[in-house]
UniProtKB/TrEMBL annotation, chain A:
<comment type="similarity">
    <text>Belongs to the STK19 family.</text>
</comment>
<feature type="compositionally biased region" description="Polar residues">
    <location>
        <begin position="1"/>
        <end position="10"/>
    </location>
</feature>
<protein>
    <recommendedName>
        <fullName>Serine/threonine-protein kinase 19</fullName>
    </recommendedName>
</protein>
<feature type="region of interest" description="Disordered">
    <location>
        <begin position="1"/>
        <end position="20"/>
    </location>
</feature>
<dbReference type="Pfam" id="PF10494">
    <property type="entry name" value="Stk19"/>
</dbReference>
<dbReference type="InterPro" id="IPR018865">
    <property type="entry name" value="STK19-like"/>
</dbReference>
Automatic annotation (TrEMBL), chain B:
<dbReference type="InterPro" id="IPR020472">
    <property type="entry name" value="WD40_PAC1"/>
</dbReference>
<dbReference type="InterPro" id="IPR042238">
    <property type="entry name" value="Rad28/ERCC8/Ckn1/ATCSA-1"/>
</dbReference>
<feature type="repeat" description="WD">
    <location>
        <begin position="99"/>
        <end position="141"/>
    </location>
</feature>
<protein>
    <recommendedName>
        <fullName>Anaphase-promoting complex subunit 4 WD40 domain-containing protein</fullName>
    </recommendedName>
</protein>
<feature type="repeat" description="WD">
    <location>
        <begin position="394"/>
        <end position="426"/>
    </location>
</feature>
<keyword id="KW-0227">DNA damage</keyword>
<keyword id="KW-0234">DNA repair</keyword>
<feature type="repeat" description="WD">
    <location>
        <begin position="186"/>
        <end position="228"/>
    </location>
</feature>
<keyword id="KW-0853">WD repeat</keyword>
Length: 264, 450
């Protein structure tokens, strides 16, 4: 789990460095990073938005995509197309609201490989299960959930499946049992726990920060510079997430974009 | 306005499009009516509204204090402010004081679709009563096993007069008024059924949405449901592209058939004690499943299908008037548009913020322009049905809104909620105002006041 701890910072920092080289800085010189949400809030295409956000954030939330493209239906449909073409994979997050995390398939496969390697180092038996999982299950089952018998039948394409194998998959964090239905599993991202906790706490903190203001609004540029106490994730991550899920609204004023808590 | 009439006269605009243009202009200017008001006799939140289907004149409302009332939407009972505001009091109401009245909240009140002589109310006191409108007496009573969440009657029915009732029991019951008994019991849901809706294209098809998040399509001439909507089965666009759909299906079925045995159905017993998994190798399981499959009646196979349409309770269902699409609202604050022929999610995203999580809501649709009216907490939002964007927002209720009902003959929207009011939203501006627009009206500049 250690590499996950450093992942957000390095990838975010790496993302920033890359952007500084790629995009010419046309913004105010006193800003460290030349990227500001204010200037690039919306994109025209979902895959462009996805790639842009992949370079900045460790994981992408579906509501962030909604904040980056104007038409939500278009986002849904293009995401569906990308999912069917096996470019991205969508996972359901267990936050109680309708949250989905989006990962590019190659990133996910890399992560599965890393876990498999770590399990081998610990000398756990039957690490072939990860290979079978990758080959058979991930390839054919594109939905975020899978039923128990289907999982067994797909895994047995690789070899004989035992209960211990499925336990191993759950321990690795690749599967989670559903609470409402004892026979269904959700696909999960290993190491998502830290991110998920940060997401929930960050959301709460950001909303309470804005609600404490007299008019429940703030300039986007100012908001971006603040640091959140309870969440190691970037402020822009949370802003995009809340705009996309409808808790925050942005509107244009003469001195820039203003973010306001949406009532109702 | 005169221009429009002139182009109709000369034949440039055909009559249908003239009517449609007028209607859409009126609908896009809907606002809280300053000319019409319903005096609500209810002392609890109003849970259900319906305008009668034959004339479009009488409004039936059911409330949480066990009362049901009928209003005349076209004739006012008295007026205020020297005739400018029309007050509509209820024509009659049946409440707890009535000797046959409901004892607990009335959750649903619908008109008999053929004429306004009868109406049906369903209540949390486990009873469905059929009332005679002229005498205000309860004619038939049906006792249900649980609280009645919703009742529905088919507006197309030529050969049956069945009331579909969704209760907190897992079975949907169809009650026959003619015989006074239950004619069908539809099993398949795994939790209570919060919304029922008859199809607008076939008198035999019923859509039900349950507290388990599943939406099932039932043909009442057959046993079992013939479709369970799954939110992950999607189509990109209004009509499914045929080739891609079958390609995906064949690939999936090839995979599964190669693993041996038809493993699509879950085994019936699913006990999990401490550890996660069932014992037994996969081949043994395949044999076991095959034998279980044989024992089940083909109509009951659908009970094993666990697909969900929403990640929560299905709180509202509405079929479009052309019968091709079904809209469903869920407690996960999502509204989904389903194609009824293919059973796929069309992936239209409606920008709802939050919806009620525990109460059933009633949505309304209008055809031209295709709008969907949804109660979202304290406001009612109108979404364009094919774009998913919010076009109008109606703020007027003091508490959460439960139902919307659209009267297409007058282009008026009636909404009601927990603040016990029934509000009318009518097209802004009077007809005379529209006619006079083209002429110049000289303003009397001395006529002002502070």
């Amino acid at each position: 789990m250690q590499n996950n701890c450093t992942n957000p910072e390095t990838s975010a920092a790496g993302g920033k460095k890359r952007r500084r080289e790629e995009v010419g800085c046309s913004h105010a010189a006193n800003e460290d990073e030349c990227f500001s949400l204010q200037d690039e809030l919306t994109f025209s295409d979902t895959s462009v938005a996805l790639r842009m956000m992949r370079s900045q954030f460790p994981r992408i939330d579906q509501s962030q995509l909604y904040s980056s493209v104007n038409d939500r239906t278009q986002v849904d449909r293009e995401l569906e197309r990308l999912r069917r073409d096996k470019v991205v994979r969508v996972f359901k997050l267990n936050t109680g609201q309708d949250d989905h995390a989006i990962i590019f398939l190659d990133d996910y496969l890399n992560q599965v490989d890393r876990i498999a390697k770590r399990m081998e180092e610990k000398k756990q038996s039957d690490t072939d299960i990860f290979k079978w999982f990758k080959e058979h299950v991930l390839d054919s089952k594109l939905e975020p959930s899978i039923a128990h018998h289907e999982l067994c039948s797909l895994l047995s394409l690789g070899g004989k499946v035992k209960d211990a194998h499925i336990t191993l998959l759950i321990n690795a964090g690749l599967l989670t049992r559903q609470l409402i239905d004892p026979d269904m599993y959700w696909f999960a991202i290993p190491g998502i726990g830290k991110l998920w906790k940060a997401l929930l706490q960050g959301r709460k903190e950001l909303l309470s920060l804005l609600k404490r203001k007299r008019h429940k609004e703030m300039f986007l540029a100012e908001l971006e510079k603040k640091r959140l106490r309870y969440s190691p994730l970037d402020m822009r991550f949370h802003i995009r997430d809340l705009i996309g899920s409808g808790h925050l609204k942005t509107f244009q004023t003469t001195s820039g974009l203003v973010v306001r808590v949406s009532t109702d | 306005m005169w221009q429009a009439i002139q182009s109709r006269e000369t034949g440039r605009t055909p009559s249908n499009s003239f009517a449609n243009q007028l209607k859409s202009r009126r609908i896009s200017s809907l606002q809280l009516s300053n000319r019409k008001d319903f005096v609500s006799p209810h002392r609890g939140s109003v849970n259900s509204l319906q305008v009668d289907l034959t004339e479009g004149r009488y409004l039936l409302s059911g409330a949480s204090d066990g009362s049901a009332a009928v209003f005349d939407t076209q004739r006012a009972t008295d007026s205020e402010a020297s005739g400018l505001i029309a007050k509509h009091k209820c024509v009659f109401s049946v409440d707890k004081g009535h000797e046959h009245g409901h004892r607990f909240a009335v959750s649903s009140a619908v008109w008999y679709p053929i004429d306004t002589g009868l109406f049906v109310t369903g209540s949390f006191d486990h009873l469905i009563k059929v009332w005679d409108t002229n005498t205000a007496q309860a004619v038939v009573d049906f006792k249900m096993p649980g609280k009645v969440y919703r009742t529905a009657m088919s507006s197309l029915a030529m050969s049956h007069t069945l009331i579909a009732a969704g209760t907190e029991d897992v079975q949907v019951r169809l009650c026959d008024i003619a015989s006074g008994a239950f004619s069908h019991t539809l099993s398949g849901h795994r939790d209570g059924v919060m919304s029922v809706e008859w199809s607008t294209s076939s008198e035999w098809v019923l859509y039900t949405g349950g507290c388990d998040g599943a939406i099932r399509f039932w043909d009442i001439r057959r046993a079992g449901c013939f479709r369970v909507l799954d939110q992950s089965v999607t189509q990109l666009g209004v009509r499914p592209p045929i080739l891609k759909h079958t390609a995906v299906n064949s690939k999936v079925s090839a995979d599964k058939s190669s693993s041996g045995g038809k493993n699509r159905l879950k085994p019936l017993q699913s006990k999990h004690t401490g550890s996660q998994n069932m014992k037994g190798s996969s081949s043994a399981k395949a044999l076991v499943e095959k034998s279980r499959q044989k024992r089940l009646h083909p109509g009951m196979l659908s009970t094993l299908d666990r697909a969900t349409a929403h990640y929560g309770v299905v709180t509202g269902l509405k079929a479009t008037n052309d019968g091709m699409y079904l809209l469903s609202a869920g407690s996960d604050s999502r509204i989904r548009l389903w194609d009824t022929q293919s059973g796929c999610n069309t992936l239209l995203n409606f920008e709802t913020g939050r919806l009620h999580t525990s109460k059933a809501i009633q949505m309304a649709t209008s055809d031209d322009p295709a709008l969907l009216f949804v109660p979202c907490m304290k406001t009612v939002k109108a979404f364009g049905m094919w774009s998913g964007r919010t076009t109008l927002m109606f703020r007027g209720h003091y508490e959460s809104v439960n139902t919307c009902c659209f009267n297409s003959t007058d282009q008026e929207l009636y909404t009601s909620g927990a603040d016990r009011q029934i509000l009318v939203w009518s097209p802004g501006g009077s007809v005379e105002g529209e006619m006079d627009q083209d002429e110049e009206v000289a303003e009397d500049k001395d006529n002002w006041s502070d």
